[in-house]
Write a structure and sequence with these properties.
InterPro entries: RNase_H-like_dom_plant, RNase_H-like_EbsB-rel, RNaseH-like_sf, RNaseH_domain, RNaseH_sf
Mean pLDDT: 86
Pfam families: RVT_3
Helix content: 40-55%
Largest sheet: 2 strands, antiparallel
Strand content: 15-25%
Shape: globular
Protein name: RNase H type-1 domain-containing protein
CATH class: Alpha Beta
Strand order of the largest sheet: 1-4
CATH topology: Nucleotidyltransferase, domain 5
Low-confidence stretches: none
CATH architecture: 2-Layer Sandwich
Length: 118
């Protein structure tokens, strides 16, 4: 339904980058008015933290807490882990955005390289 990348300058930790990406995706889904969403990610740690009801005490706890608040906006939500091969489109978007200074959002389309993967 939509694709995007949001550059984050100064983020050198993949764990934090994965959490930020999830937060941006959830925010975009809210902005687009989606009521039912599936969150899939290949960072097992981030997915487990989102699935847990326990308080998070990791370095990404502020991001996890923000996502938990945001997901309350949806009528239906599933959060699941997918292996890296199943998340190839997201990795392609990350590669496209890594050296960009401005965000990019596609609605009902994506870049040609992401379309080929999907």
């Amino acid at each position: 339904m939509a694709a995007c990348y949001f550059p984050h300058s100064g983020v050198t930790d993949a764990f934090i980058a994965e959490a930020f990406a999830c937060e941006k995706a959830v925010s975009l889904a809210i902005d687009l008015g989606f009521r039912s969403v599936q969150i899939e990610g290949d960072s097992l740690s981030v997915i487990k933290k989102l699935q847990s009801v326990a308080a998070d005490k990791s370095i990404i706890s502020p991001i996890i807490d923000d996502i938990r608040v945001l997901v309350g906006s949806f009528e239906e939500i599933t959060i699941s882990f997918v292996n890296q091969a199943g998340n190839a489109a997201a990795h392609e978007l990350a590669k496209l955005g890594i050296h960009q200074s401005e965000p990019m959002i596609w609605i009902e389309e994506a870049s040609a390289s992401v379309d080929r993967i999907v």
